[in-house]
Amino acid sequence: MINKDRVRTMTRLAIYEEGQGVADDKMNGYFKNDYIVGHMVGSFVSGTIACLLIVFVYCCYYYDTLMLRLFENELGGLVKTFLTLYAAFMIFFLAVSFFVYFWRYNATRSRIERYNRRLNHLKESYEKEDKHADNRI
Amino acid sequence: MLTTVFEIRKKIIEAYGQYEYIIIPALKFCVAFLLILEIDSHIGFNLGLTNTLLGVIIALICSLVPVNFIAGILMVLVLAHLYTLSLETMIVAAVIFLLMFLLYFRFSPKDTGIILLLPLAFTCRIEYTVPIIAGLLFTPGSAVGVAFGVIITRYLTYVEQNKAVLGNSEIGPATVDNFRNIIDALLQNKAMWIMAAAFAAAVIVVYFIRRLETAHSWTIAIIVGTVIELFVLLFGDMQYDTNIDLTKVFMGVFLSILVELLVEFFCFMVDYTRIESVQFEDDDYYYYVKAVPKVTVSDSLRTVKTFSTSEAGGTGFRDQMAKRLGGKSAESEE
Question: According to the model, what pLDDT value does residue B323 have?
C-alpha cells in the first residue's frame, strides 16, 4: 500500500531540489562571512559604476561650465563634493547590500535545515518500516 | 453558483499545473510579442527592426529564455530604435537601464517581470494594478522596480511625443543641448515622479497589509493600496498642477480593481468562516496557531442519465447500448 505521508514528503523534497534548492545549494558552499563579503565586493563595483554613470551624465549636462572651470583650474571643490557624495552613497548602498545578503543567507540556511528535517523524517519512516518487517520474520 | 465558480477555478489551476511546460513559454511568447509590437508602433524608428517576422522570431527566442534575458533583449531593441532617432535619447535610455540593473536588479533579479508588464498595463489602461499585484505577490523591494518601470515608460512616451525635435540633431554642440533638454524634460516631468511615488507607496503599503494576521487582509490591502495610489496622484495634481485626467484615472482604477480581485481569487482564496485556533507545546515552545483553511471543492458528483423505453422510441436500453457498441443487438448477445 502507498504510504501517503512518505509520498507527500518526497514530493516536497523533489520540488525544493528542482526549484529553490539549486540556488540554495550554491549558497550552501560558502561560509556566511565569505558569502556576504563576496557580494559586498560585487555591490561596491556596481555602485562605483553607477556613480561613474551619474558623473558622466552630470559632465555632459554641465559640459560648458566644466570646461570653463577646467581652464581656470577650479575643479578642486567640485571633485571634493563628488567624492563626499560618492562616499555617502557607497556607505548607504553597502549597508543595504549587507542587510540584504545577511537576511538572504539566513533564509537559505533555514530552508536547508527544513529540507534536512524532511530527509530525516523520510529516513525514519523507512527505518520504522524495516523494523516492522524484521519483527514479522 | 459559487461552487461552480470554485470548480472552474480548480480546473484552471489543475490545467495550469498539468500544461505548465506549454503555458509558460506561450505566455512569454505573447508578452514578448506584444511588447515588440508596442515598441515598433510607438518608437519604431529603425524600419529594418519593425519587420513582423523578425518580431515573431525574437518573441520565439524570448519564449525559451528566462525572464531576465527577455528584458535584456527588449532593452537592446529599444536602444537600437532610439539610436536611429538620435544618440542622446539612446544614451539617456542606456543610463536608466544600466542604473536599474546595477542598483536594483542586483538584489532582486526576479522582479524583471514587473518592468515588462508595466508598459502593457499602461496600454490596457490598467497600470494601477501592477503595484498592487507586486505588493501582493512580491516583496516591498518591488517598489523600486515599479518606479523604474514608470520612469522608463514615461521616458519612451516623451521620446515618441517629441520625435520631430529630438531627431533633428547632428553630432556637435547641438548634441549637448539636446542631451540637456532631454535630462531637463525627464527631471521636470512632475506627473512621472508623482506616479512613480504613488506606485512605490502602494507596493509597500499593500505588502505590509497583506501580511497582517487579520481576516480578509488581501482584500483590505487591495482597497487601501488603491486609495493610496489615488490619494498620492490627486495630492500631487493639486500641489504641482500635473493636469491628470480624473475620468481616465477613475476608469483605470476601476478596471485595475477587477483585475486585482481576479488575482486574489486565483492566488489567495481562503475561507475565513472556518478559522481554527489551536494551542500546543513541545519541549522548547508553546505554540498558538491560527489556521485559515483554503477554499477547496470536491469533484462534482457524477450524473447518471437514465434511459426509458418511451424516450428511446420503443427500443430497450440494452438495444441502444448494443447499437453503440457496433450494431450488435441485445438479442444476438444472448
Answer: 60
